[in-house]
Amino acid sequence: MRIRTLLACAAAALCVSPGIARAAADSPRLLAQLDAAFVRFLEFNPSLATELGMAVANDRWEDLTEAGMVAEADSARRELAALQAGFAGAQLGPREQLQRRVFEAQLEREIERFRWRNHLYPLNQIVGPHIDVPRVLESQAVTNPAEAAAYLRRIRAAGPYITGLVRRLEAQAAARVWLPKPVYPLLIAQARNILQGITRDAPGGSPVLEDFSRKLEALPLAPAARAQQLEAARRALRDQVAPAYRELLAVLESQGASTPVDGGVWQLPDGEAFYAFLLRQFTTTALGADEIHALGLAEVARVHGEMTGIMRRVGYEGDLRGFLQKMKQDPRFYLTNDAAGREAYLARARGIVEAMQRRIGEVYPGPAPLRLELRATEAYRAAGAPSGFYEAGTPDGSRPGVVYLNLERLDTRPLYDLESLLYHESLPGHHLQISSILVDPAIPRLRKVNRWWQDTAFVEGWALYAERLAREMGFYQDPYADFGRLAGELWRATRLVVDSGLHAKRWSREQAIQYLDETTPSPRASNESAVDRYLAVPGQATAFTVGMLRILEERERARAALGEAFDLRAFHAAVLENGYVPLWAVGESVDRYIASAQR
Q: Model-level pTM?
């Protein structure tokens, strides 16, 4: 890749002219501050440290109390002041200049989030502390007795962690902020499933106990010491963690019965301003609700036009609405909701991923640098989980990247969606994107990790772009699979319409479901789940299409500027070379790629 070659050359003394060296004189100092900020970031976010495979604060959880939030916001303010004072007029290289401004934008957003802390829902059916406990513990490495002791302390700390979530929900209710009524049953079901798992003591019972037992078995411990640690974990789950989940269940049930909110955030105090903030946060643009809504309607019309072409190609004689209904109901597109159906679904998924793995070098300078596995979504989170999602591996490769596939209700998950889903979550989507970022030594560690709400347009825009990229590579040979790709684009386009409809235009839940029923080929059960997701995570769903369109725009800009010198593999590397960034930073990286290729 041309950019990486230039950077490698710049790192060698013989390749650096004195002028370039002087221009970048402060770059090492900036990179040192970014690295120190990364360490502080993990101190506030120990679950993320575990996901990165780092033993940082691995015996505790995030501090969900008001005091914890104040401390993190104060840290961001100090970091921002130090950055602005220390690097005003600094001599930085081009990539370091971008990293400085990205870090500044990140800190400003964190400070703004603190102002909205009583509006931000602390949990939803996709992410949240209630799900994190078994998930993070399963990710936590135990390679020696000290790490086993940290694991045990973290189990004990899970009780106060969940209690902190309860206090946060109560504080928000006091500020007249509640989750929407349809979301509570989903959260209650999840919490109850986890509680039942925690309190099960038979073989095949508690996932946390089973995980700890497996990890203890691999250590050189005496059988008595191993049994003692396992018994301590069992008591902690029974006496400390389970009561906290019972308290969480009680609060969720109480609030679910009494919440006056049944729709979008417009029902909350200052809801309009809050939603405007959420759009800025998730899209990393200045697009407002009306612009988002209009963009969504235009994209829906475009995709419907392309779907009509496929409809004619397969010989369907009716109109598009009739074709969408046929696609929802045709049994050949669905597997049986049993063990045989689940095995067939996984086998088909593995074949799709293996075929893409053989050809990924056509669009990227190398294969994904970390291993990839496909797994069924665990039972405790399947009810509220999407059809598929990705969890990153560790930079050292000790834990692979994993695509989780939801195998519940397979009779509602059409097979024509599977290709696009896997290109989104695995290759050339999230697995290529995230694993490439994790192992790149030129990217500051701070840009290799982000919380789920950060730089969503870059993260999800790339994955949606990857679905289309696979079509350009010649995949989706079955026209119905290509219809599934378009159904995925349509799904993300309708999110712009429905999310802004719910939260800015005061649509009801039923109105939003009805729109999806009439506009997409998705079955009603999927549409209900989708609307409940948009209610629980306002704004996030708008980032996918906004990000994809920006990447496509940047690609065509580079192609127009370079003509025959345009290199698709180098373009993709340029998009990913700075780690997790806002969309404006992607544009600046493409500027550098164009300038480099022209030279």
A: 0.92
